């Protein structure tokens, strides 16, 4: 009975073009379409305006430093702060550097130079990238000035400590490499949920009330479980490699267990959710708009420590909340199953919860 239900489910999927596109085609398309927006990975050469009111050798040296950094590019030399502000408002530049009069004199006299930085907060990534480049240039000029001051005062050579930055896991600090490894598992969940709910609603339209024996329901769940595992293998085994996203050579057993629990929880949730839809179009209409809130609740793009506690607890009812943390931790960071124990327990609890709901909703009813 399990085998017949398993094969019948695959036949139903293959004969339904919409379900086929949702469950299989969308994962293939998203694997290449979604990462293309972040192919640049790191924002660079953000336009910056410089207002040099000092007109000294030190201010010119600072401007030269600005032209050398990767993140920022000096595209305008404004005669006044007001002129530079107009460029910022017109979005022609992402940041402004104002070097006040007396900048060099303060430094040569042993004091501290002051530079004013302005950015457009409405474009956070653009502005932060530009200001990061400006900050790097200022740091370099400041270190050179400190060494010159120390030598003039007869102090020892510059400090022996130097900071060397080595990012872990996401070595290029790219935006795509940060976001897409988590989004991939959101895509898997959403396609399974909508595809299964669509098929369930179609069967309800054709047959009326749905009822399955536990073994038949397990066969249906097994078919979707195989599809979900194939999608996980597609993303972790090929897409992450093809897009050159960071991977930590995850332990195969840890990855297998993590993927199995995540997909099983997603399928159980999809079965439970699909039992409530009566028309074929409704699952897509209602569920497709939830992708962005679900991703934010996962804690990958916004820390859970900054999320209201009640919302953090409610988010644990979604397979993606523990699933994304688990899969990214294992696949991108090389975490062990013991280190991800909380997420494993969360997923196991969701399998039991949604599995029980699905068994109750699809139980055979007395005539």
From TrEMBL:
Residue ranges constituting the ABC-2 type transporter transmembrane domain according to the UniProt record: 21-360
Record keywords: Cell membrane, Membrane, Transmembrane, Transmembrane helix
Name under which the protein is recorded: ABC transporter permease
Cellular component GO terms held in the UniProt record: plasma membrane
Membrane topology of the entry: Multi-pass membrane protein
GO MF: ABC-type transporter activity
Pfam family, one: ABC2_membrane_3
Locations listed in the record: Cell membrane
InterPro entries membership: ABC-2_transporter_component (IPR051449), ABC2_TM (IPR013525)
Keyword Transmembrane helix: yes
Highest taxon listed in the record's lineage: Bacteria
Presence of keyword Methyltransferase: no
TM helices/strands, residue ranges: 12-33, 175-199, 220-242, 254-277, 284-302, 344-362
């Amino acid at each position: 009975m399990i085998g017949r239900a398993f094969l019948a489910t695959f036949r139903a999927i293959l004969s339904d073009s919409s379900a086929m596109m949702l469950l299989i085609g969308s994962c293939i398309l998203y694997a290449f379409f979604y990462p293309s927006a972040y192919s640049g990975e790191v924002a660079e050469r953000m336009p910056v305006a410089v207002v040099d009111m000092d007109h000294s050798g030190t201010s010119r040296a600072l401007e030269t430093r600005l032209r050398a950094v990767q993140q920022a590019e000096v595209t305008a030399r404004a005669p006044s702060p007001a002129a530079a502000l107009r460029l910022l408002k017109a979005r022609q530049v992402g940041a402004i550097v104002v070097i006040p009069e007396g900048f060099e004199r303060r430094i040569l006299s042993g004091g501290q130079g002051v530079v004013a930085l302005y950015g457009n907060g409405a474009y956070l990534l653009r502005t932060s990238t530009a200001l990061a480049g400006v900050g790097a240039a200022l740091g370099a000029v400041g270190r050179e000035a400190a060494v010159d001051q120390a030598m003039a005062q007869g102090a020892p050579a510059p400090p022996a400590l130097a900071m060397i930055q080595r990012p872990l896991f996401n070595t290029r600090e790219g935006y795509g490499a940060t976001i897409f490894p988590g989004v991939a598992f959101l895509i898997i969940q959403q396609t399974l949920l909508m595809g299964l709910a669509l098929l369930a609603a179609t069967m309800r339209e054709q047959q009326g009330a749905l009822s399955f024996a536990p073994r038949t329901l397990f066969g249906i769940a097994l078919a979707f479980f195989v599809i979900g595992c194939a999608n996980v293998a597609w993303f972790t085994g090929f897409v992450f490699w093809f897009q050159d996203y960071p991977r930590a050579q995850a332990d195969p057993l840890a990855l297998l267990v993590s993927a199995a629990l995540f997909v099983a929880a997603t399928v159980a949730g999809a079965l439970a959710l699909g039992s409530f839809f009566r028309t074929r179009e409704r699952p897509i209409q209602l569920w497709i708009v939830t992708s962005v809130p679900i991703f934010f609740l996962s804690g990958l793009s916004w820390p859970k420590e900054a999320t209201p506690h009640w919302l953090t607890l409610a988010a644990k009812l979604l397979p993606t909340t523990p699933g994304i943390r688990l899969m990214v931790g294992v696949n991108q960071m090389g975490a062990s199953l013991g280190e991800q124990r909380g997420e494993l327990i969360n997923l196991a609890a969701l399998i039991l919860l949604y599995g029980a709901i699905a068994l109750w909703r699809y139980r055979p009813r007395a005539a």
